[in-house]
């Protein structure tokens, strides 16, 4: 396979208070079989060898599971390729001589830590507010003790596929977190185990989402288009219904 010679336009920012700027790097002799993050590793190795400051970016599993590798590539979260994370993007999708723009996810609730690294702790706080089920610990219950309709199980499983990367927020013009919150609420609210705390969970997670500074959803579906796990916006409609019912119940009680 032929190697690629690329030009990178990379966002550099010292911290959340720094204005930041774009710097240009030459990515030479990049193997086509390399992943996008491996390409950045190669560039960073050369930058370090030349006495420069390496490009800071986030990563962990590099298998499309953890959601840490959140980059905006040529203006699109995780790139224009659908159904993949940044770490699953390979350089064979680019052409030699191409210029690639690399920026962090942009959202008020995701402050820049450094360069391409953002603080997505807001998602963790939303999960802490209600994204769990309180159960008695001890011996595991029998797997068949609580039958669940296949349709419901499949819908819950699909919602649970969300890895919390934040692409939905970065793609939304309002920086809305509704797709993330609706997926995390849905996979619990749909199951029998999640029913007892459904009202409390829904109200708490939406309240925390609002407090974190995420914008409103205007149903333009950019979130679904860039989601690496292709989470459906149907979950947003379900969350809106659950929130309305939960508000009524809370008001009555």
From TrEMBL:
Give the matching SUPFAM superfamilies. 2Fe-2S ferredoxin-like, alpha-helical ferredoxin
Q: Which cofactor does it need?
A: [3Fe-4S] cluster; [2Fe-2S] cluster
Q: Which residues form the 4Fe-4S ferredoxin-type domain?
A: 153-183
Q: Name one Pfam family in it.
A: Fer2_3
Q: Sorted alphabetically, which InterPro entries does this protein's record hold?
A: 2Fe-2S_ferredoxin-like_sf, 2Fe2S_fd_BS, 4Fe4S_Fe-S-bd, Beta-grasp_dom_sf, Helical_ferredxn, SDH/FRD_Iron-Sulfur, Succ_DH/fum_Rdtase_N
What's this protein's family per the entry? Belongs to the succinate dehydrogenase/fumarate reductase iron-sulfur protein family.
PANTHER family xref list: SUCCINATE DEHYDROGENASE, SUCCINATE DEHYDROGENASE IRON-SULFUR PROTEIN
Check the record and name the NCBIfam families matching this protein: PRK07570.1
Its name, as the record gives it, is Succinate dehydrogenase/fumarate reductase iron-sulfur subunit
